[in-house]
Amino acid sequence: MRNENVEVNIIIWNTVASGYLKTGNYTRVLKLLSQFRASGDQWDPVAVINGLNACSHIGALKLGKEIHGLAIRTCCHAYDNVKNALITMYSSKAFEMYELLDGLNEQLKEAGYIMCDDEDEAMEAYRIDDGERK
């Protein structure tokens, strides 16, 4: 991009990364975002979402956790879209392990309710999961 004398900014990086994401070129998304970070520019919530979505598609949980940490350091984790991308990333990996870990689905649902600040639903899911009824 820099060879074409185009001023590269966050919008261009995110647009190209989103295009790669939509065409299923997930590793290219991560390489592009890595180049962006190496250039010294700071990620915004859209870049974080692109990175998390790419990680969830290829099962790169470790890299996804690193992006999660970056989101916290850059205060991007407060955006609802970023929270949704985090839930998707962590749950996609968890559902792969569901066959091995009985009951994980309910725990993820409870965690999802808690992450969305819905403690009442989380407690209700916990009571039903433990066999308790109102």
Entry keywords:
134 residues, mainly alpha
What is the gist of this entry?
This protein has 134 residues and is mainly alpha-helical. The chain is built from 7 helices and no strands.
3D structure, described in words:
Helix content is 69%, strand content 0%. The chain has a domain at 2-77. It has helices at 10-22, 26-38, 45-58, 61-73, 80-96, 104-115, 119-129. The model has no long low-confidence stretch (mean pLDDT 79). 24% of the residues are buried. It is elongated, with a radius of gyration of 18 Å. It contains 7 helices and no strands. The longest helix has 17 residues, at 80-96. The protein has 134 residues and is mainly alpha-helical.
The overall pLDDT average reads: 79
Rg from C-alpha positions? 18 Å
Uncertain spans: none
Number of strand elements: 0
Percent of residues in beta strands: under 5%
Large-scale geometry: elongated
Order of H and E elements: HHHHHHH
Briefly note the structural class of the backbone: mainly alpha
**What summary fits the major beta sheet?**
none
List the helices and strands and how they pair.
Layout: H1 10-22, H2 26-38, H3 45-58, H4 61-73, H5 80-96, H6 104-115, H7 119-129
